[in-house]
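Sample intake — NAD-dependent aldehyde dehydrogenase
Collected from: Rhizobium leguminosarum bv. trifolii WSM2297
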Amino acid sequence: MITPLEHLSRSDRLERFFIDGKWLEPRGTAKGIVVNPATEEVVTHFALGNREVVDAAVSAARRAFVSWSRTKPEYRAGLLNRLEVLLEARSELFAQCLSLEMGAAIGYARSAQVPLAIAHVKVAREVLEAFPFVKQRGNTAIAHEPIGVCALITPWNWPLYQITAKVSPALAAGCAVVLKPSELSPLSALLFAETIEEAGFPKGVFNLVNGDGSGVGSALACHPDVDMISITGSTRAGVAVAQAAAPTVKRVAQELGGKSPNVILPDADLDRAVSMGVAAAFRNLGQSCSAPTRMIVPRALLSESESIAGRAADEIVVGDPLSTASTHGAIANRAQFDRIQTMIGVGIAEGATLVTGGEGRPAGLNAGYYVKPTIFSEVRTDMRIAQEEIFGPVLCLIPYDTVEEAITIANHTVYGLGAHVQGRNREVVKDVASQIRCGQVHLNYPAWDPHAPFGGFKQSGNGREFGIEGMLEYLEVKSILGYF
């Protein structure tokens, strides 16, 4: 099978931007690099955009919006269906790409990163097919209309998943988009743009500009012809985008950082609750904003929880992302690898009990951004490792004495993105969930629901993605009196 790099090199995509339905050569000489996290080697270069390229992309989107916003929902749904089919056909190419550019274990790329991304396209189509764009309220029509040109900024940790989570509902709503993926994971975005092109979307409806935050992200955030900007990233980046967007009063949707709690109630099935909690925290090597990396456990069960958590961590196989024997691959980039190592050192210095893992690479891995799955216990909620987003496989076990204290601990961060609650008494579980200040709560490890809205309270951002609420973000509300 042809590799992602061979495919993109043969088609000359690495040196181009997709604007107005064409693959355009760069208007500058700036280049970005793609580093293989498993080897730390530079594997390719790609063109970086600038303000001139952003202007061209936004102008193309503005022109396309005029007619695209007037198309029938059935037409847009048909194109989304075509996109879904093509993504399915290229799923292995995307899986190989994600493994190369951000270190995902190939098995996880195949079973989660790619299929969950495709699910967002399907959901957007399903929502579109059933969505009432005009409702009657007395003699007034309540109409939902596309907001306009949307700039979409996506991260490196779930590259394809976050692209489809933003692009699909925006296109379904009738918006035209300019996508700026992370400069650390540009390859999957180039493959996605090719798929959009083959699906037959009209020119200018989707535009791709690779680039960094200072060169492309800031230009999009302050651009007067961009009506909305949606960003998934760090809280710091979200604040910068909101500040840049403020003078033009554009809509800003932010899905930002998290430090999600996992409350283990006294009556929970402890073995299941803790072992599955470790798996959830270390999913994608902990590089998920909603990863439940604070496990809040009854003090009387702390020792037993440590033993269960340690055994669960021992089952993790960190290694070559392209090996099917590896359950977890490499951390996506050097900066994040260094951040994780620093925070593990902080946890040790703060006096937390190291259950397993620690600083340095796992045994036998002398190169690559590999990290030991690390679990701390006896963590106090005022420690840095309990407050700061580490974005890696580092789990904190925090003891509590009463359920009321557990809820207080769960809410004791500046974040409010996700949470988990485990217990046998469903009514108590639901009551605890109702008191946690966050945008999404998982009770007893349910199946993933792509229609469930996702987003944050507090410094985890605003707005929602997924499902009906995800598409509503890209729509304006117009009331037309005397319509009926």
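Post-analysis note: The two ends are 59 Å apart (CA to CA).
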